[in-house]
Amino acid sequence: MEDDVTVDFGADGLVPAVAQDAETGEVLMLAYVSAEALERTHETGRAHYYSRSRDELWEKGKTSGHVQRVEEIRVDCDADTLLYVVEQDGGACHTGHRSCFYRAIDGVSVGDTNGDSSGTMVDVENVGEQVFDPDAVYEA
Amino acid sequence: MEDDVTVDFGADGLVPAVAQDAETGEVLMLAYVSAEALERTHETGRAHYYSRSRDELWEKGKTSGHVQRVEEIRVDCDADTLLYVVEQDGGACHTGHRSCFYRAIDGVSVGDTNGDSSGTMVDVENVGEQVFDPDAVYEA
């Protein structure tokens, strides 16, 4: 069944996109996607995102060589989140880990009880696999 | 290696959280989490989120019975996204599908070229598995 859906890019023109390893199913990263980034991803078969901090379109792996070949793009029920199913070269994370989600949370301590979340700390354990040396890949 | 991390809940006090099926690796949904929702999830072992539309904390499955038992919580490199690794009862999606990402994108057409993303349409194909009847589960 084919259907048309309008993607809800919201007030800032972006939707979150989850990248998942096509082979292992591992969740690799989450980044944001503009309409142009989605179009470029679909056209080229390589994952494009929109950087909120640098305020620009970027192709994943352009600097590091760790590109993502997109096998499938999915859209969720509310059409406000995307899923990129990808073949990941090297590692997805700038820290050198295969996945950005390389830390497991062991404890949560909320800083105060008046609704201010800024003091919320978590105890984490590194459980991820480091697959490259970021200093070697991103050196100037 | 244990470490302390401050979760970056951002201006609106929320971070996106990806829920992944612990057994199959399937990406089930994305929703938003407040500091309180994270604390409750960690305390109870059941996934809690914060609804932006209803403006309230919610426990997944409270109405439908389709709860998520959280095996692990991960935090990403920038500490602004969470990953819930869960045992999912029934289906994660209110449409009756196992995953909210039940539609694959076959085509992308950007509405106009002046940067307005509101007209961006995608052609989708339903590739997901429906595991329950939403009318039966959510009836008044």
Q: Supply the CATH class of the domain at 15-88 in chain A.
A: Alpha Beta
**What is the total tally of β strands of chain A?**
9
Per the CATH scheme, the topology name of the domain at 15-88 in chain A is Ubiquitin-like (UB roll)
Which sheet architecture does the biggest sheet of chain A show? 4 strands, mixed
Strand order of the largest sheet of chain A: 3-2-7-6
State the assembly state of the protein chains: homodimer
Class by SSE composition of chain A? mainly beta
The mean pLDDT of chain A is: 93
- Largest interface by residue count? A-B, 61 and 61 residues
Count of individual helical segments of chain A = 2
Alpha-carbon distance between the termini of chain A?
49 Å
Low-confidence stretches of chain A: none
Q: What is the helix fraction of residues of chain A, given as a range?
A: 10-25%
